[in-house]
Structure prediction request, 354 residues.
Amino acid sequence: MPHTPRTLTIRQPDDWHLHLRDGAVLQAVVGDSARQFGRAIIMPNLKPPVTTTAQAAEYRERILAAVASLDEAGAAGFQPLMTLYLTDHTPPDEIQRARESGFVHGVKLYPAGATTHSDAGVTDLLGRCGGVLEAMQRHGMPLLVHGEVTDPEVDLFDREAVFIERVMVPLREAYPELKVVFEHLTTRDGVQYVSEAPGPIAATITAHHLLYNRNALFKGGLRPHWYCLPVLKRETHRRALLEAATGDSPRFFLGTDSAPHPRGAKEQDCGCAGCYTARHAMALYATAFEGAGRLDRLEAFASLNGPAFYGLPVNTATLTLEHVDTDIPHELPMGDDVVVPLAAGESLPWRLQG
Ligand code: NCD
Ligand code: ZN
Prediction:
């Protein structure tokens, strides 16, 4: 008799933090997300960035066209939830346009210089963006925060903790009703803050920050494909993140931060930040939750908590994973180039059914 693999079926998940890029890269990567997720919050850090509702509308059309051209039944329903890139010069009335569009679901704060394509980001949030923040609070438009300071005096591994004290706390004191998502949380300090803070706050957590600590960056040599921002932290932080993701608080939900870069852009003297995890996203998360003995919590984290925070319905479809060992390829085609997925050459105990 053939052996039937153990399976796990959950309501279809969403990815609340995703980089799809544009053009040939978009075309190459979008299927990896659309096969698993019902919706995704699409990051606006293109070159040039998506700063207006009109640009977001055009980008959304390009994503929908790329999905349609896949001609895959399992991917066809994928909905991109668009975001705007906040700058020092975003006019407050852009928020009303964004809200009225129905397809813009957040505004992304990149502190200038904090990460990939953040040079057009904000230099002084409370000093420069007061009118926009006030409009966002009034319209119930979430602020999605890359929570790291860029002060060169601050140790790279402390950037998130210092951001909480210097930016997050004053921001939320000034705008207590503003909905805030602390994106790709990486520290115990962040978990504690998000768990306890008053008002509407939540956080996304990536699969790689649940599965790996910073040793992965240096295992046997320097490993550029494990480098992302915020950077992987020490084991105590990984454990705190895993406890939060698998715990009872609805404030923590799935955001892959899958960020494709061509192989050559990462393997060089100054390699880009960003890990490509979209292809194996749900298998990676299931591996992390199984490791914590909490597979029963995966559905809340992946499929229920995010829609509740964003005020959207949960998906009606389901997704099934199979407990079958699966090798992660050494590279994946990406337009004229290739991308090296996270944990390339390693094996995962889960895969998508079908
Ligand atoms: C992201 C990218 O490549 O766009 N990189 C990353 O390391 N996560 C940007 C970001 O989300 O910080
Ligand atoms: Zn990101």
